[in-house]
Amino acid sequence: MIRGLVFDLDDTLCDDTNSYHRAALSAARELAAAHGVDAYALKEAYIREADGFWQRLTHEEIGKSVGMLRVRMWAAALADVGVRDESEALRAADLYNRARNTNLALFPQVEGRLADWRARYRLALLTNGFAETHREKIALLELEPFFDAILIADEVGMVKPDPRVFLHACQRLQTEPPQTVMVGDRYDRDIAGAMEAGLHTVWVNVRGEALPAGQPPPDAVIAEIGQLDEVLSRWL
Questions:
Q1: DSSP class of residue 209?
Q2: What is the DSSP string of 96-109?
Q3: pLDDT tens digits, 47-60
Q4: CB 232 within 8 A of CB 200
Q5: What domains can you pick out in the chain, each with its CATH number?
């Protein structure tokens, strides 16, 4: 019997990709107008920097300030379009942060379901984000009342896909791995590590990605979080 659900946050419960793309474009437009550069080129340069950082994230980096890391990302993006000005990188990061907070939203399929999941299971939120930004994000999304445990990478000192962080989530939920389901949108971060730790896995494949070659499939694949209840009903 399933007793616990562990959810990823970004692009699983909330539409993070669209949120940060819109925020990056908003900041890029203001910077581009001041420097006569292409706003979309600047926005895409920042997205490349940010995506690369999160894909490479390891436990060695989680003790750093994400605010300063974001300034460095914007500095690299600005340099890519020919602007080398540290003060403008600082301004870009501030513009981005303010725009990001206005774009946050849960997926529509999540609203109204959290209370039901909370009534049936013990719930944990497990994110590779930084407390410096993600505590505010969680508060703005009003998620905290629904979770028995909120686990953020730099607070627990581990990052997905380290199997230990999934076992830690089970310990916090007081469930055994075979009683627990990991629900996330990244095969490499959410699914592979959870499988190694012995959890059931549901891949929310919002980008329609192929299963990585030679890798074992998750227990279930869904296109969006609204299909989760159908999967959970199989494990009653």
A1: P
A2: HHHHHHHS--B-TT
A3: 999 988 877 777 66
A4: no
A5: 4-15+105-235 (3.40.50.1000), 16-102 (1.20.120)
